[in-house]
Amino acid sequence: MTMNSHIPDGKLEEKWSKHKANLKLVNPANKRKFDIIVIGTGLAGASAAASLGELGYNVKSFCFQDSPRRAHSIAAQGGINAAKNYRNDGDSVYRLFYDTIKGGDFRAREANVYRLAELSVAIIDQAVAQGVPFAREYGGLLDNRSFGGTQVSRTFYAKGQTGQQLLLGAISSMYRQISLGTVKAFPFHEMLDLVVINGRARGIVARNLITGEIKSYTAHAVVLASGGYGNIFYLSTNAKGSNATAIWRAYKKGAFFANPCFTQIHPTCIPVSSHYQSKLTLMSEGLRNDGRVWVPKNKNDNRSPDQIPEEDRDYFLETRYPAFGNLVPRDVASRAIKLVCDEGKGVGGKNAVYLDLTDAIKRLGKDVIEERYGNLFEMYEKITGESPYKTPMRIYPAIHYCMGGLWVDYNLMTTIPGLFALGECNFSDHGANRLGASALMQGLADGYFIIPYTMSNYLADLGFEKVSVDRPEFKEAENKVKEQVRRFLSIKGNRTVDDFHKELGKVLWDGVGMSRSEQSLKTAIDKIKVLRAEFWKNLKVNGTDETLNQSLEKAGRVSDFLELAELLAGDALLRDESCGCHFRVEHQTDDHEAKRDDEKFSYAAAYEYQGEDKPAQLHKEELKFEEAHLAARSYK
Amino acid sequence: MKFTLKVWRQKNAQEQGSFVTYEVFGISEDMSFLEMLDVLNEDLTLKGEEPVAFAHDCREGICGTCGLFINGRAHGPLTGTTTCQLHIRHFKDGETITIEPWRAKAFPVIKDLVVDRSAFDRILQAGGFVSVNVGSAPEANGILVPKKNADEAFDTAACIGCGACVAACKNASAILFVSAKVSHLSLLPQGKPERRTRVLNMVKTMDEEGFGNCTNTGACEVECPKGITLASIARLRREYCKAKIKG
Amino acid sequence: MQNAEKKCAVKKCAMEKSSVTEKVFMSLTGLFLCLFLVVHLGGNLLLFKQDGGAAFNAYSHFMETSWIIRVIEIFLLLFFLTHIFMAIKLTIKNKQARPVSYAVNKASENSSWFSRNMEITGGVIFIFLCVHLYNFMFSQRFFHHYPSMYAAVRTVFQNPWYVLFYVICLSWVGFHLIHGVQSSFQSLGLRHPIFTPWIKKLGVLFAALIFLGFLSLPVYFFFSRTSRRNVQSAISHQLKIENGFKRGASQ
Q1: How many domains does chain C have?
Q2: Residue A205 lies in a domain
């Protein structure tokens, strides 16, 4: 299989408009003859289903949740970036592009990022027209806040629930199409295999999670928008159900997987409190607008935070990075927090630092802070039992987002023709680190404004002919899935799925977490192999496959995580440099900043599946930087 | 800490269910309620029994998936909280905790504590949207919305569709949910052109789904984890009457 | 095409009755019945006039014979029937909406008893209404059991069981109103951050006044029966003397 990124020629700022002009179209009357399957109903999936439905295609939308509107985009808190320059503070499409490229530590594709910045503006228009209740000023105009890695205020927000509001907006558009009959929703359905016929994606096999029925669905094209694989670490800010199954099974059918080692650690999450913890909760990056991050200067300072005077506090982000202060990008902040905690300065000797809004409360008043972050404070208090109005929050980094994902070309098509990947499940726009408030932007740009164009270009050449579910390719895939389900239930070992998952998470966090070394990665790979072997021998799943069986669902997901984990660690081992979130201890500057190696690693690593227990084949997509000049990232 | 859990077990929608009593030990007060159920399920699995099915996903109180009727209250004893955000520190050591699924004709039980809330989706599909195609949106700041309206619209749009209002209402009425959706869009200029058809169609679907009728007990308001108030129900009624009168 | 269909659907929808319109009917009829209670109480208070029931009898005579009142009465009957019919319909529908009830339900932690038991308080009121209509309206208007309405009131409230029954039922009228008044405003969508708390308070006050106002009559007539007997015997004695005097004079 070959990789062609299909990046159009011409000047950066003209690429997308020229490309759009050259894309082939499908006659409106013919659109209804095409079936499209969309997997996932987050921002990317819902917006894709809605916009494709609006065009007149027959869309089938699948999600494992009980309702499309529960996809995990709903949990995004802080906001969405757009180069509107409403603040008159020097923002522009170019600056958003540059911030994103730089924030991603020069490991993203220029053309894609520029297009993203360009489209950001239209997303806000679309969302507002749908009735998304963004925060507003007294004059009735839209309000903005700032986010990490930027020096402008370009983030649009709806309190700490921006993801929820944008998702409900996208879902409302999708529901409108459902009411008009162009989109059909399949909630409680999990895609378990991709069906490729004559080299093209022509359908899926999905399991009805309530009845256990395994069934094939055909289409002319399949769109994956199934989100990231952060749950591979067990403890993450992802929803419990978030998984890599759709993309992993597509990978095993020939789609390349790019940059799996780029997993983002979010600096401000509620720290782990003990072994039974089932998930980590994010405290929005928006809090760093008004909050100050600090630790006691002296180790073992056990005074309560209000008893520690200014001179005994170390505002380490402000001192290390005076230009960006508390608003440095996530990877930088996370590492700095890890560094102080490793030095033993963590609060109470534990892995935690203070995120303190006391100054802001004094300066702006409790009401203003409550209006901005009220729901986050409430959430924090519910979980920890402490009120952030009184005591500073304690935070620590946690796995949050995956920049890596299926490799896609400029049209967001994977290496399997007819299989597209949108949103977090592709690798395209964020390089080695994503800036805050950019995930929502990417999901919606992909779904609303890119896939409608590139899909028609693909379908225009395809022909209307439908494939039958009776074809051997479908039967084979169905049987494979059934066989796997049967196997999970028949092992009857001694360990639960969660038990395996927790151990995998620990292996990854220790070896492939915030800092990685050759040794830690090799150890991790060995452990993953052992764990995977044990999984297939010692797994215990009770119940049947004929009713809702949550353990069975998890078993499938964890089995995929166990395979993906090895690819992830292997990629981290191969990438012998530090960049963005990927921090190899062997490659750091004197003051512990990531040191890139552009000579050797200025590429996206795309892996091709070679078969069970065979190492994946690496393909390199060289990254060319014509506009943004490769430079050491500095936020000082 | 230890607890006695009386959990509703039901194999599927067709079969009858019943309560089964379990004991859980070694529970810490910092655990979330669902983490306690995780402990129970791990235990049951190792004993060779089928774990208790319960709905959950984000576990940070925003997706609206979780929803248990705990000790006679929707989402448990704490107000303004989803089940996943409820922590063990709000229970007494040794307490007996009764856990039931949401009960309503419109929310049939799928298994154990999981219910089918697709009726909510069908209500939304009946009109919970602004008809705007991608590409045709005007410049965002071209639509002015007074801050007060925007904030109020946000407050109602914060509904997570968990169904606690239905679960808590003695009549299993869905009107708080519907009114939150109707209020959100009727407060914004974007939602004005379709406001009449929207409210009529959504109420019609609500009735067809088999929810009960509101008798203004106010239970929904108390149990709503997102603080949607009866004011939005009043707004729905006004919108509805206006739509009826003006046709 | 799509739009035309949609319009049709909307029109059809506008003709149908929904749970929201049903509540509007409940509310409007309920509020009218509250108004009726006020008028009824006003008339009843004439019983306190110390004229041996003359004013009250005149009032009830007017109520029995005036054609305007006949018309209003028909409406009143219609409102009562609508209110009751809707209530039954809603109650059945609401019971059906939860076929399996909760094993443990701490409803008292999220709502008031009055709000949750309108069908029960309403049911008691319905029984009361039947007895009340039999006691006064039917027995007086159709069967002429008593020489006057005043006499009817006086006689009925001599019976301690009736008085007890009235006291109990009237308190349930009050319970019904505690939730009913504020609820009817809510059902009409009349809600305001400043006025609604007042409406709630006034609703409770109204319920209390209606309860106490109506309650005062049976209690008054019951407890004043002994003294009333004395008064009556004095009156009849006086009449006898006067009659005797007249007779004597005519002779």
Answers
A1: 1
A2: no
Domain-located, residue C31: yes
Residue A330 is among the residues annotated as catalytic for this protein? yes
The residue segments making up the domain with residue A311 are 267-398
The pTM score is 0.94
Distance (Å) of CA A498 to CA A72, B22, B129: 20, 20, 39
Is residue A489 located within the same domain as residue A600? Answer: yes
**Cβ atoms within 10 A of the Cβ of A358, count?**
18
The pLDDT tens digits for A3-21 are 899 999 999 999 999 999 9
The domain that holds B125 is classified in CATH as: 1.10.1060.10
- Residue B74: give its domain's CATH number: 3.10.20.30
User: Judged by CB atoms within 8 Å, which residues 81-120 of B form the interface with C?
Assistant: 98, 100, 103-106
Q: What is the ipTM of this complex?
A: 0.97
CA distance A628 to A263: 23
Q: Give the tens place of pLDDT for each residue, C145-172.
A: 788 889 889 889 999 999 999 999 999 9
Domain interval for residue B22: 3-111
Number of structural domains chain B divides into: 2
Best mutation site among B109, B216, B229 for testing chain C: the one with the most C CBs within 10 Å? B216
Tell me the two tokens of residue C71. Answer: 């018309």
- Enclosing domain of residue C35: 20-83+113-229
Which of B55, B62, B125 has its CB closest to that of A164? B62
Same domain, B135 and B236: yes
Q: How many CB atoms lie within 10 A of CB B85?
A: 25
What is the secondary structure of A507-563 as a DSSP string? HHHHHHSSSB-HHHHHHHHHHHHHHHHHHHHHB---S-SSS--HHHHHHHHHHHHHH
Q: Where are the beta strands (DSSP E) in chain B?
A: 3-9, 18-24, 69-70, 73-74, 96-100, 109-111, 114-115
- A69, A70, A115, A330: the active-site residue: A330
Instruction: State the residue for tokens 């059991």.
Output: C145
Q: Hey, which chains touch A, using 3+ CB pairs under 8 Å? A: B
Maximum CA extent, chain B: 64
Task: Give me the CATH number covering residue A285.
Answer: 3.90.700.10
Could B53 and A548 be called an inter-chain contact, meaning their C-beta atoms sit closer than 8 Å?
Answer: yes
